[in-house]
Amino acid sequence: MAASDAGKHIYFTGGSTATLTVNTNATTAIDIGTTILVVNNNSGNLTISGAGVTFQLANGATGNRTVATKGLATLLKVATDTWYVSGAGVT
Questions:
Q1: CA of 79: how far to CAs of 3, 42, 46, in Å?
Q2: What is the rounded CA–CA span in Å between residue 58 and residue 21?
């Protein structure tokens, strides 16, 4: 994911599976408060991952996130290396 993705959407299509890698702030500086929409139009799951980055679900669970086929995830940066992830088909 790039800083230029801030406020935009990232659209995954055409593959069976995919991975969106979110770098630490030290590698790719993205402002706190930034939202990025992720759309999974692949035929398989999309994994959201990043070493040194925390992905938080509404239930308190942390770790890599999976976006189901045809799922939609919103990423909201709430701290230096912490993102809230929510949406349809997100686990």
A1: 15, 30, 23
A2: 21
Provide the domain count of the chain: 1
Residue 25 lies in domain: 3-86
Q: What is the pLDDT, as a whole number, of residue 14?
A: 85
Confirm whether 27 is domain-assigned.
yes
Residue 91 in domain:
no
pTM for the structure as a whole:
0.93
Strands (E), the chain: 9-13, 18-21, 35-41, 46-49, 54-56, 65-67, 72-79, 82-86
Look up residue 62 and give its DSSP letter. Answer: B
20-52 pLDDT, tens digit per residue, is 999 999 999 999 999 999 999 999 999 999 999
| Rounded Cα distance, 73 and 29, in Å | 21
Average pLDDT over residues 71-79: 98
Q: How far apart, in whole angstroms, are the C-alpha atoms of residue 16 and residue 78?
A: 31
